[in-house]
Amino acid sequence: MWTLERNEDTEQQIIRETFHLVSKRDENVCNFLEGGMLIGGSENRLIYRHYATLYFVFCVDSSESELGILDLIQVFVETLDKCFENVCELDLIFHVDKVHNILAEMVMGGMVLETNMNEIIIQVDAQNKMEKSEAGIAGAPARAVSAVKNMNLPEMPRNINIGDISIKVPNLPSFK
Amino acid sequence: MPAPIRLRELIRTIRTARTQAEEREMIQKECAAIRSSFREEDNTYRCRNVAKLLYMHMLGYPAHFGQLECLKLIASQKFTDKRIGYLGAMLLLDERQDVHLLMTNCIKNDLNHSTQYVQGLALCTLGCMGSSEMCRDLAGEVEKLLKTSNSYLRKKAALCAVHVIRKVPELMEMFLPATKNLLSEKNHGVLHTSVVLLTEMCERSPDMLLHFRKLVPQLVRILKNLIMSGYSPEHDVSGISDPFLQVRILRLLRILGRSDDDSSEAMNDILAQVATNTETSKNVGNAILYETVLTIMDIKSESGLRVLAINILGRFLLNNDKNIRYVALTSLLKTVQTDHNAVQRHRSTIVDCLKDLDVSIKRRAMELSFALVNGNNIRGMMKELLYFLDSCDPEFKADCASGVFLAAEKYAPSKRWHIDTIMRVLTTAGSYVRDDSVPNLIQLITNSVEMHAYTVQRLYKALLDDISQQPLVQVSSWCIGEYGDLLVSGQCEEEEPIQVTEDEVLDVLEGLLVSNLSTPVTRGYSLTAIMKLSTRFSSINRIKKVVSIYGSSIDVELQQRAVEYNALFKKYDHMRPALLERMPIMEKTASNVHTMFFGGYVWYYFFTLNCAFLSLAIPPMTAYSKNGLKIEFTFERANPNPNIAVITIHATNTTEADMTEFVFQAAVPKVSHDLSVTFVLEWPSQSPDLNPIENLWRELKVRVAQQQPQNITALEEICMEEWAKIPATVCENFVKTYRKCLTSVIDNIYRNFWTIKRT
């Protein structure tokens, strides 16, 4: 999310520059970097944390505590974990809008809004529920899918050979 | 028309693209489909389409055509639509698009919506990208929400208020009443954002700062509760109760306590408590401690507390975590000026950090080490710093070398130590030394009269080892030129004098002239050095030969010098000893000599000054009278100081045409009294001097000469070829160095121009 005015080209350039700066970092150096030229040079800093193959990079100015931001990143990642159930890269790629929604509950206008993980999750869940209830017919397939996911289905046989089957119609007793 | 594909489908498709072109194609196809769907005003799928558009925007593709659609989504009644609509607004819109003003009404309605989440969305969007007009219109609504009892909305309203204040500072007073009972909230989220709001208001307005000072006791109480409260599961992070809030409060206390004794005193106890009670095993604890230290250093705390703070920083330095060491070094750098002695105690730890693997830590440790150098620890510190200079990365060497020179200049215990240190820097990091250090060093050496023999001997030995480091070579050749006689006569007292003959010295200097490693500047230095030795050595013929060879050198600068020196040998031999005498001790500050250089036709006019003239009155003298140009000198004694002679030059043009490119150059030999010479000369416009294009011409000449054209047509061809071949980087370089060239001309201007010629 960009809280200062930028155009698309500059945004992409900034992203590229940040990527270059952070990807060059070794494992055992500290997690703070001076920002590149496009982000305002040495007044702004990049604070990043490295989880397996993902880098979370926060760009902050001097009014934030660096060590505090490290903790914030940790809280963010833990929240993502709770919301997505063992979050992995694919979750983040395919559910970009959800990630934005979670982030919107934590950081607003470039400032930290809420740091309590449970609080954030409650709000996000409530809003998701609202969305689902509105979905109507269009949401039926999604609801069906999530319902099936929660069921314990036995393994379906792959090949069903319907050869010559004489279907015996059972003699149903007549109901009086 | 089939239903537009879902976002997930789109993402999956894009991920299968193997090249950038394929991806672009897919995106364009989808964009076209989205556009036609927008045109059809399709309400059901608008939300899906905008979601896809936002994803494509994230990848970097233009998405501006979706801006209006976002507005339509915001105006819809469904929460799903609004959510995507607001997200789209935050990502795609900003102040520069006129479209954003249309949102104002929607946001106003949504701020009064019955569902808190819709209100939350509206607050969030306003707080992220609200323009000043929007903020002005909606500030009243935000203020209302700031007073609500719903904590979810209250915390968002607080941050939205911060944004409004940033955009429209005049509205700050409007939020003042609402802040009255913000701090009595129980909800930590609201507390946190309220503290942010208060911090913003205090930072912006000194009146607000005064007003909020009375909140200090309340803040202290909240902080105390946090520390003493014990385990509270909802706010716990690694065993500490809501560290984020603690850090925020500490920061606000810092702002409130700055330069105010009473508030600072109220905070002393709690700061000491936090400093001593916080668990430091995890990062959270250290974050709080760090903030505490910064606060202690900034407010008017008592000295015991300050020492405690610096000791905490010292402990941080020994921590295994590199992040902690980094922040510790940064804060020590800020406090070293004010609490110098306290920081000195940790000097050895800081010096150890020089050996750290992390580049950022090394840099900070280096800066801090230079700040800590003083007269007492100079020898020890310098040893460590020189060792660091040997082994550090190239990006540090320039800064480190400059730092060493500065420190040596300020605190050198003896001249010999000073010169040894400089030699050490030149030999280990010679190529990284800054350009202005060469003249500074030359001046230093000149002024240490008793060390001349020692210096020239050591420099000569260094030259024998290595001629690749240009600053070292330049200083050495200058010294040999000046003090070559001391070298040959073996007069050194400080160490064992070496045996060297005149020929050996000249061999070395000539070697510099022909070596590929020498830059043109270095060659200039060595040629001048050879020339100077003509008055100090006896083998004049050899020197004459060298000088005459270089009279036809391709390098214009060398050629000019050689020609001038030749002229000295031939026509002005009687002036040579005076001109090439030892340099006097140079003043560091500018003396009142102004000279201007300009090119064009140059001719020399040497005139001798009789040393005795000060006791006699000298009649006016016509120095030159030819072709309508007449130059006269008049001499008089200055009032009130009769030891100063004032020489005035009158130049008159008696022809009818203008005279252009008038050049005056004066060579003034050393006399036993100070001579202040003031010239003010005209510098005609479009003069080729100091014009960077001349460098380009020279570049071309060199290249063409290498091709050795045989006739005029070949010359033309080769010229065109070589001109085209000159890379843009060469031109860029000329432009880049032009500024440096100009500043160094201005710097050197006050030294008589012959000083430069002699180096």
Could you characterize the architecture of this molecule?
Chain A: InterPro entries: AP_complex_ssu, AP_mu_sigma_su, APS3, Clathrin_sm-chain_CS, Longin-like_dom_sf. Chain A: Keywords: Cytoplasmic vesicle, Golgi apparatus, Membrane, Protein transport, Transport. Chain A: It holds the Pfam family Clat_adaptor_s. The complex is a heterodimer of chains A (176) and B (759). With 176 residues, chain A is of the alpha+beta class. Chain A has two domains: 7-64, 2-Layer Sandwich (Beta-Lactamase), CATH 3.30.450.60; 65-136, Beta-Lactamase (2-Layer Sandwich). Chain A contains six helices and five strands. In chain A, strands 1-2-3 form a three-stranded antiparallel sheet, sandwiched between helices. A two-stranded antiparallel ribbon of chain A has the order 4-5. In chain A, a hairpin with a 2-residue loop joins β2 and β3. Chain A starts with 7 loop residues before the first helix and ends in a 26-residue tail after the last helix. In chain A, 21% of the residues are buried. Chain B is mainly α. Chain B contains 35 helices and five strands. In chain B, the strands form two sheets. Chain B has a three-stranded antiparallel sheet, with no helix packed on it. Chain B has a two-stranded antiparallel ribbon with strand order 1-2. In chain B, α12 (216-228) packs antiparallel against α13 (243-257) and α16 runs antiparallel to α17. The longest helix of chain B is centred in the C-terminal third of the chain and has 22 residues, at 728-749. Chain B is extended. The model of chain B is unreliable at 589-616, 671-679 and 752-759 (pLDDT under 50). Chains A and B meet through α1, β1, α2, α4 and β5 of A and α1, α3, α5, α7 and α9 of B.
